[in-house]
Amino acid sequence: MSSNPPVPPAAAGIAVPTGAAYKSLSPIEAAKRRAAYKAVEDHFDTSYRYIGIGSGSTVVYVVEAIVAKGRDVTSKMAFIPTGDQSKQLIIEAGLPLGSIDSLPPVEDVPSEMGRENALHVATGQQDLGLKGKRESLDVAFDGADEIDEDLNCIKGGGACLFQEKLVATSAKKFICVADSRKLQPRLLTSWKTIPIEIAPLAAPTIKRILITLGSPDPRIRQGGSAKAGPVVTDNGMWIMDAPFSPLLISDDIKDGVKGDGTDGIWEVHQLGRRIKRIVGVLEVGLFYGRNGGQVANAGEEGGGQKPVAAYFGMENGEVEVRVAKEFGGIKSRP
Ligand SMILES: O=C[C@H](O)[C@H](O)[C@H](O)COP(=O)(O)O
To answer: Which residues form the signal peptide (predicted)?
Structure first.
């Protein structure tokens, strides 16, 4: 895909680039926008009901592409935010706002599966295993700070990560959209720290433990000129940015290479699980593991889930699509 997406119709509150404004997008912004349109083209279905909308600068273009589908399509859906920024984005785009903690029980949903289960429960027959289960999101779109060749991600550069992981694990498919700078062979190649959302009271203890795990200089993220003192997340927490050496992927674990922190070398899953165990850690900005909304124990593994596909806007105007190896591992350059 080497041409720019069409200019969509204007939507309430959304600054849609048109004409000269479109041409004024920087190459990186134009690349992000092309990737977002391609991701929406491939993974947004008009029959969907619940759509997760992530945080950051790239999902702005995802929302723009969704708005371009028209109100006839979007008014029947609910858009679930991953924090205050994406909540505002959804509202200003005129899309119906939903909430991750108010998804209806499956039985209330007029789907074949829900109706069938309700019938079985009502008639005393065997429950299909859906009792108490809530609806999944059909898809969640989000950005990332870095994505490795196995599609593990670092997220949280914008201080949103707990709600992003919650939304990702609630989705049948999680789709990442980014530009070419984010694609690296291993995590912590270009992006140097892991964002960790922590309880402020636990900050000194967490910092000490991270140092023992091999992080040379974990730091509490400061608000800079925008806010005196630490950045406070949408959940009233702080962010600790912890540098580590580049992380191994699971395929690297062989021939005596353990990835368990020996000599300061960690594999993504092992480090993610280890940090999550520290008291006071709300969430770790490493996204790895199986597809969330379609597995019984979604959210129980700590890693959230890695995307089933990642879309990268490349410098040459193309969009590179990478698919998780569990889903075929195809790389394509449409
Ligand atoms: O906390 C922020 C989120 O994880 C973002 O999705 C991530 O930082 C990527 O943001 P952007 O699209 O602005 O590069």
So the answer is: none
